[in-house]
Every structure is written in structure tokens, then in C-alpha cells.
């Protein structure tokens, strides 16, 4: 398991671990702890989900390392069907399974003898922000949730950017996916969405192009592609319709002031019940909060989890 986009800090250890979610899929994850970690004590822990289509060797690993330096047990995982995690067919995206992956991470952390299972929090980056919140709506073992550059994938897929999808466009998209199911069935395997959806010529996706296709963030497991037909599930299942259920557990939303995705965090913050907080990072775009340690407010994340996982 190589090609991490960041250097391992000399004060941190990283251990490759595996465990299964409730679907029986083996999850590959990296466990980060400080070098002076005392296993005889019980510690607060934070699990970190990657951006949608990303893997643990990228931004979520950076978060894991930084939180481990601050004394937390941190777990960065690959979602089911992606990265080094199991599951067939490959490169499926699923609102239910990706939400389950957060609860499976809680299962793993809460059964470590050095973790206090009453002090487990979650971080979701980009699309994982929606999955982390969705998991916390029903999994009350998650005591605090933070999102950065949050995307509600279900809303984006079924309604378009800024909810701009028309009824005709929705019907057309669903008709195309329905026809693709026939093609997949006859082929015996599901087709992937085209790679060119990540483009330097599109004002929204040029940020993703800069990250995923250049040395800054490239990883061979992060294809930025999912099976075409798996997107259909997001038209049928809302992720955040029960966000008020998270209360009284706290939520921290972090977004860049230049991020095209900022409205997802602002709208989710408005819909959530207290306690909640919205932090807007000056000069940051969407992907800056994936890997730019000069802009990601790790001190704020440390403060949030230290207070709420006390």
C-alpha cells in the first residue's frame, strides 16, 4: 500500500488494518497514533472518510496524521468497492453502503482496548461529509461530527448543481441509467462513467482535475469514476433528511469562502439543530481543504473534538 501523497510525520505511526462492515465487505484502513501513544490508557478517537472517489492515501490520511499528532486515535479508511477495500463489482458508489462504512469504522475503533467507545467522533471530507452526517443521524455512538468541503452527493446527483436540474433533465438521466442496466446485464459487468467528467475546462471540475490528475493528489486507486448505474440510488435516497436527529450531539461545518460547494455546508448548517457551528476559511477553495495544511483549520478541529469528546 504505497503512493501516499504526503510524508509520514516522524512523530506519528501508521498501521494498515482491516475489518468488515455489516455487508461482509472487508474495509482497508490506516490507523494513526502518536509515537508516544500509551496503550494502557483509553483515548478519544476520530474516524475520517475521504472525498467521494478518493482514497485513504490522500486527504483523509493527512487528517488522520494531523489528528494523531494532537493525541487522538485516528482511522482513515477506503470506502467499500474502492481503493484497497473489498467489494464487487469495483467502483460502486452507494448511499447506504458508504454510510454504513462510517458505522463499521465505529465498530472497529470501539472494540480497541485503548479507545474509549464513548468518545468517538467522525470527520467527513467532501462527499464523506454527507455520509458522516447520515451515519450520525442513526448511529448515536458517533458523539461529534465535523465536515470539510461537504458535498451532499444525493442532492447533487438528483437535483444538479445549485438544484438546477430540470424535470426533463432528471427524466433523461434516469432513462439513460435504466438503459445502461440492460447494457451492463448483457455485458456481465457494469460500465464506468467517462473519465472526462473531470476536466480543466469546466469551472466546477477544474479543481478536481488539479488535484486528482497531477502529482499534488494523484493516486492510482482514485479513478474519479463510478459505475454509471450506481448513481441511480442517489435519486431515490436522501442523505440528510434527518439531520436534526443528530442533536444534541454537535456538528462543525467547515467550508472555503471560494468553494463552489460552500452552499452545501451553509444549507446543512441551517437545517441542523443546535449545537452547530459553521466556519468559513478565507481564501480557500473546495480542494484546498483536502490537503493544504496551511488552510485546513486543524487547531479548530482539535478544539472541537477535544471539547466534545471529553
The named CATH superfamily: Alpha/Beta hydrolase fold, catalytic domain
Separation of termini?
Answer: 34 Å
Number of separate domains: 1
* CATH domain class name: Alpha Beta
CATH architecture: 3-Layer(aba) Sandwich
* Net shape: globular
Global Rg? 18 Å
Question: What is the fold-level CATH name, i.e. the topology?
Answer: Rossmann fold
**Mean of all residue-level pLDDT scores:** 96
Tally of separate helices: 10
Strand order of the largest sheet: 1-2-4-3-5-6-7-8
Q: Report the portion of residues in β strands.
A: 15-25%
The helix content is 25-40%
H/E element order: EEEHEHEHEHHHHEHEHH
For the largest beta-sheet, the strand count, sense and barrel status come to: 8 strands, mixed
| Secondary structure: number of strands | 8
Q: Which residue ranges are poorly predicted, with pLDDT under 50 across at least 5 consecutive positions? A: none
List keywords for this structure.
Rossmann fold, 310 residues, eight-stranded mixed β-sheet, alpha/beta, 8 strands
Explain what you see.
The model has no long low-confidence stretch (mean pLDDT 96). Strands 1-2-4-3-5-6-7-8 form an eight-stranded mixed β-sheet, sandwiched between helices. It has one domain (12-160, 230-308): Rossmann fold. Helix 2 crosses helix 3. With 310 residues, it is an alpha/beta fold. A hairpin with a 5-residue loop joins strand 1 and strand 2 (26-34). The radius of gyration is 18 Å and the shape is globular. It has ten helices and eight strands.
Amino acid at each position: 500500500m504505497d503512493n501516499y501523497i504526503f510524508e509520514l510525520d516522524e512523530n506519528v505511526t501508521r498501521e494498515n488494518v482491516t475489518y468488515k462492515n455489516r455487508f461482509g465487505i472487508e474495509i482497508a484502513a490506516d490507523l494513526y497514533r502518536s509515537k508516544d501513544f500509551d496503550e494502557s490508557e483509553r483515548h478519544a478517537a476520530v474516524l475520517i472518510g475521504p472525498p467521494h472517489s478518493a482514497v485513504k492515501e490522500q486527504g483523509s490520511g493527512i487528517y488522520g496524521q494531523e489528528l494523531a499528532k494532537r493525541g487522538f486515535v485516528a482511522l482513515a479508511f477506503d470506502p467499500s468497492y474502492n481503493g484497497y477495500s473489498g467489494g464487487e463489482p469495483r467502483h460502486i458508489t452507494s448511499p447506504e453502503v458508504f454510510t454504513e462504512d462510517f458505522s463499521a469504522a465505529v465498530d472497529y475503533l470501539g472494540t480497541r482496548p485503548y479507545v474509549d467507545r464513548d468518545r468517538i467522533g467522525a470527520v467527513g471530507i467532501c462527499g464523506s461529509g454527507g455520509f458522516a452526517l447520515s451515519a450520525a443521524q442513526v448511529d448515536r455512538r458517533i458523539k461529534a461530527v465535523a465536515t470539510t468541503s461537504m458535498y451532499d452527493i444525493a442532492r447533487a446527483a438528483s437535483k444538479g448543481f445549485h438544484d438546477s436540474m430540470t424535470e426533463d433533465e432528471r427524466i433523461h438521466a434516469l432513462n439513460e441509467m435504466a438503459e445502461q442496466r440492460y447494457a451492463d446485464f448483457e455485458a456481465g459487468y457494469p460500465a464506468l462513467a467517462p473519465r472526462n467528467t473531470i476536466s480543466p475546462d469546466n469551472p466546477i471540475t477544474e479543481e478536481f482535475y488539479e488535484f486528482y490528475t497531477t502529482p499534488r493528489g494523484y493516486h492510482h486507486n482514485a479513478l474519479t469514476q463510478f459505475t454509471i448505474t450506481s448513481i441511480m440510488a442517489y435519486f431515490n435516497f436522501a442523505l440528510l433528511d434527518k439531520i436534526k436527529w443528530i442533536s444534541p450531539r454537535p456538528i462543525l461545518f467547515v467550508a472555503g469562502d471560494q468553494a463552489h460547494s460552500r452552499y452545501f455546508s451553509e444549507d446543512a448548517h441551517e437545517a441542523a439543530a443546535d449545537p452547530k457551528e459553521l466556519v468559513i476559511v478565507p481564501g480557500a477553495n473546495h480542494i484546498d481543504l483536502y490537503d493544504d495544511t496551511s488552510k485546513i483549520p486543524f487547531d479548530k478541529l482539535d478544539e472541537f473534538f477535544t471539547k466534545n469528546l471529553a
